[in-house]
Amino acid sequence: MKNNYLIYGSSRSGKSTLARMMCTRFNISYIPIDKLVTAFEKGLPEIGINHEKKTSENVSNFERFLIPYLKTISHLSRYQDNPIYVVAEGAYLHLEDYVTQLSKSFKIIILVQDTDANTIFENIRKNDCKLDWTYSLNDKELLSYCKHLVKVNKYIITLCRKMGFSYYDTHQNRVEIFDEILKEIAKEEL
Hints:
Rossmann fold; 7 helices
């Protein structure tokens, strides 16, 4: 391995699944950014970093920790005798911040579901397990959330096009798309 990776994308687009597949295939470490948010939420609630209120101030507070943390890991992976490479995944920061501050340190993979709310709903129900936070939502709650995700996906796609970044649409053939990504990474790592 000679690169660190960052997986960004909309909620329920397959970020965690792809990250775990990469860890298994390439024997690299995994940093789930959502778990770091949860640690701040539980351990330092006064800072305001949490999953419920993703305000600009909260994101900025988290960014002051996350960006230097990831840059330090990247630095260590490049200058140690036994480097440690990672795949980090999450979407708590804004895509622009990831690109401007981390694209030199991490290869960025962006996942979206470019489709309608009903298809996203079906995909979530098909792929969810008891550990996923959407698992316990009733159908009405989940469909409402999926309508929100349609807007989020469109926003991410617009940003990608504006910044010249490619993305993967995981609303169909997710397994094949992940296999394609893993093959591309394997070629880059030779």
